[in-house]
Specification:
Layout (H helix, E strand, L loop, with lengths): L22 E2 L15 H9 L2 H14 L4 H25 L3 H8 L3 H13 L3 H14 L4 H18 L3 H26 L3 H12 L5 H4 L1 H9 L6 H4 L1 H8 L27 E2 L4 H41 L11 H12 L2 H37 L8 H21 L5 H27 L11 H27 L2
Parallel strand pairs: 1-2
Helix pairs in contact: 1-8, 1-13, 1-14, 1-16, 2-11, 2-14, 3-13, 3-14, 3-18, 4-5, 5-16, 5-18, 6-7, 6-16, 6-18, 7-16, 7-17, 8-14, 8-16, 9-14, 11-18, 11-19, 15-16, 16-17, 18-19
Length: 478
């Protein structure tokens, strides 16, 4: 191990009251071919291309035009900063953000795991995908199709030898399909009036809470990109990809088909903050920022703008559009009239596949966060592996989703608004915790700087404000 130079860069100060002290190892060298480890930002964007991109934002555009697209850009940019602060801690320690929160408060991880479950117990993404399949084939019961989808998702996630690798490949196919839809829509479906409306959205932005309701507007901002627990799981995804100190931590594998898991008893790994390690840190940090900006931010913004423009071109001013999933059927039918039958069917097919892939990602990250938290905080000495916990949590979430569907709760937009409001509340809380953790636990040389702290405080105040006013708005409707 390299000797620490005389320069005072500070030291790690991870609390050890609730969890053991981390081991000390050198920070690994960043790979020379960085394209080989691009992926977590793409997975984050791909899983996030779901309710917000195919349902919430297009519905908003069908009702008020493109005047609120600025909210999507703000939401995505703020989430980029949140993701980077989540990644900062994991790059430096190999621990997830939830484990870091547990060091400062013994049950913070449990709080966020429960909130993530509350947001995702309603299988709105699976029901949305199922509904689009019925539009595609002209028949079928969305409830039973969604139940079959949940079972397939459970099988995929628990039989993949390395779960992250499978998820990355699934999302890559999804992004390619959406890119194809973007290219064809720009060529055949989007007309001049929509481009003019996009210009008006830049010069005359609006905040349409009065027309749409505060809950829907908040949900759209919170789900512009990732939102809620999906931001937190960036820790787990970059660790499985081998970013920074995460290279020392075993990956999540299938207990059925996967490789033997390494010993996961050590919570994390810190590095001596000497000149050599800090030089490596600067390269890791630069790469992580570029990876998130060029994948998560770019893919998400482009997709939201495109799907909103497509909805504007086909639905704006149509009085038949209602506040439920059926507006996607009208959109597809209109595309068949404007372009041809083939384009409407393609729209429904890609939408159904995209929402299915998103549902798989949501089941993954919900179960992944809970398995990591339970193993690291409550079952450290147990012989039960994190992979086995993940297996049971995946199937538990699938089973609960099936119960919800059998109980008759199948209206996707309502379920998604509930989920999105929960996500916004979570982001309010962990914005503050991230600032506290990254400004105290890490050496001075790699702590969160003042200008990034300002963004976290903006996120804390903005999502806190939105959470309070959404609750008030919903109480008024009772």
């Amino acid at each position: 191990m390299a000797d620490t130079k005389s320069t005072d860069h500070g030291r790690f100060a991870l609390p050890t009251k609730n969890l053991p002290a981390p081991q000390v190892r050198d920070l690994p060298e960043p790979p020379t071919k960085t394209w080989k480890i691009i992926g977590p930002g793409m997975v984050g964007a791909g899983v996030g291309l779901a309710s917000g991109e195919f349902i919430l934002w297009p519905y908003i555009s069908s009702q008020v035009g493109l005047v609120f697209l600025w909210g999507a850009v703000v939401g995505v940019v703020v989430q980029w900063f949140l993701n980077m602060e989540i990644e900062r801690y994991t790059l430096a320690t190999g621990e997830t953000a939830l484990t870091g929160f547990n060091r400062f408060g013994k049950h913070w991880g449990l709080f966020f795991a429960i909130m993530t479950y509350f947001a995702n117990l309603w299988p709105g993404w699976a029901t949305s995908s199922a509904s689009m399949l019925t539009y595609l084939f002209g028949a079928g019961d969305p409830r039973w199709i969604a139940i079959a989808m949940l079972v397939v998702i459970g099988a995929i996630l628990t039989l993949a030898p390395v779960v992250y690798v499978m998820l990355e490949r699934l999302i890559a196919v999804k992004i390619a399909a959406v890119a194809l839809l973007v290219i064809l829509a720009l060529a055949f479906a989007i007309r001049g009036k929509t481009y003019s409306a996009l210009g008006d959205a830049v010069t005359h932005p609006q905040f349409p809470a009065e027309q749409l309701g505060f809950a829907l507007v908040m949900g759209a901002i919170a789900y512009a990109g990732a939102g809620g627990g999906q931001n937190l799981v960036q820790s787990n995804w970059i660790r499985d990809k081998g970013f920074g100190m995460g290279v020392h931590v075993p990956r999540l594998t299938s207990p059925v088909t996967g490789e033997t898991e390494a010993d996961p008893t050590a919570n994390g790994y810190t590095f001596p903050p000497n000149d050599e390690n800090l030089a490596r840190w600067k390269r890791w940090w630069k790469f992580a920022n570029i990876e998130q900006a060029s994948t998560f931010v770019a893919i998400t913004v482009v997709t939201i703008v495109f799907t909103s423009m497509l909805a504007h071109a086909t639905l704006f001013g149509n009085s038949a559009v209602k506040n439920n999933i059926s507006f996607l059927k009208i959109e597809g039918t209109t595309l068949q009239t404007l372009v041809g039958d083939w384009f409407g069917y393609l729209f429904w097919a890609i939408g159904a596949f995209s929402l299915f892939a998103a549902a798989a990602g949501i089941v993954d990250y919900t179960s992944r966060l809970a398995a990591d938290m339970v193993k690291a905080r409550y079952l450290r000495e147990s012989k039960v592996s994190e992979s086995k916990l993940y297996f049971w949590l995946v199937w538990g979430l699938v089973a609960f989703g099936i119960i919800v569907l059998l109980a008759g709760l199948t209206q996707p937009l309502v379920l998604l608004v509930i989920s999105a409001c929960t996500a916004g509340t979570m982001m309010f809380v962990y914005s503050g915790l991230l600032w506290w953790m990254n400004s105290r636990a890490l050496p001075h040389a790699i702590r969160i700087p003042t200008w990034r702290s300002a963004v976290l405080w903006f996120s804390f105040l903005a999502f806190g404000f939105l959470a309070v006013f959404t609750i008030i708005d919903q109480v008024k409707k009772l």
